[in-house]
Amino acid sequence: MAQTKIKAGGFDVDVISGTTALTATPADTDEIIISDAGTLKRIDFSLIHGNFFAATGFSSYITSTQTVTSGTESTLTFDAERFDLGSAFNTTAYTYTPPSTGYYLFNIGVSYRGGADDNLERCNLTLKKGDGSGNFVTYMDWEKDFSANYVLNAGTAISHIVNVDALVPYKINVNVTDQSGNPQVLGTITNSYFEGYKIAWII
Q: What is the pTM of this model?
């Protein structure tokens, strides 16, 4: 059998079959041959394996109970982090700015308490997206209406896939209506959190 060689201009088809199977995940420095518009090139596996979590994973939470004005939209003060692998969450502005475009999974949980027994009427949770000029617009809004049966405590937990097509900040706002007094957003990681990571490229 003639010796098969890989050359700059191409390679023989029987090279692809191979005789030794790779039985483990390729190392970052392992190389793969691809055709770039008909030109053969080699590429390190590190450029295509897509370890998104290592570069984008974050988990933030509110450390102390936050009192909000009834019927008024307020930004939630996510002032602490469990982790921020891409250093993209801002605990002063309470925003997450994705480092790259793609599809992200955001998990949001918020716990509310009324100003008095059975006083909570309505809770709106809003994911806000920066518009590129320093302002924010509504990306998605979720509402819980208790007007038919007022409550003292309530909670909202959301998992939502976001199409990040621009590298702008995201933040969480609430608008809680209480029959009397001002409601609270409960602190600690088990009560109110904002976390997420990238799950796919935009194709």
A: 0.78
